[in-house]
Amino acid sequence: MIIEGKEMTSEEFSAHCDTLGITPSEYIEHYGVLGMKWGVRRENRLKRAKRVASGEAGTLAKTKFALTDTSTSSIIRNKGVKGAAASRARELEARKQRIQEGEAKVSDLLALHGGDKFWVSGKH
């Protein structure tokens, strides 16, 4: 295991805990998302798209959707951000449905795990 940037055996870890005055079971480890800021949560893309499409979203959520979750051509094609959000929500719902039913495509699974920008943009 790696503690404070140093790889340790279980005996070394026990000795480390002894120096801290705690038992190994009291030691807290954190596996965070690399680059993620403390206290910042990622909003579910489907939830954000539905909020923008329904008109419940504020200016910040609409702007974030327009900049990160859709393209300019989609906004134009769907006659505005609300239309693009409704289209994106339908797309995400269909993906979610395919995954739940076990009929997912490779692109669905990549998108689920953060690779959708890579595949949606066509730059592969």
Description:
The protein is mainly α and 124 residues long. The protein folds into two domains: 1-31, no CATH class; 45-120, no CATH class. Helices cover 56% and strands 3% of the residues. It is built from seven helices and two strands. It has a two-stranded antiparallel ribbon. α2 crosses α3 (59-69). The two termini are 36 Å apart. Mean pLDDT is 78; it is low at 118-124.
Task: Considering the chains and any ligands shown, give keywords for the structure.
7 helices; 2 domains; disordered C terminus; two-stranded antiparallel ribbon; 2 strands; 124 residues; mainly alpha; 3% strand
Walk me through the topology:
Elements: E1 2-3, E2 6-7, H1 10-20, H2 45-54, H3 59-69, H4 72-77, H5 81-100, H6 106-112, H7 116-120
Antiparallel strand pairs: 1-2
Total domain modules: 2
Helix share bin: 55-70%
Mean pLDDT across residues: 78
Task: Give the radius of gyration.
Answer: 22 Å
Global shape:
elongated
* Uncertain residue segments: 118-124
Question: Termini distance?
Answer: 36 Å
Number of helices: 7
Beta strands, count: 2
Q: Which series of helices and strands comes N to C?
A: EEHHHHHHH
- Across the major sheet, the strand order is 1-2
Oligomer: single chain
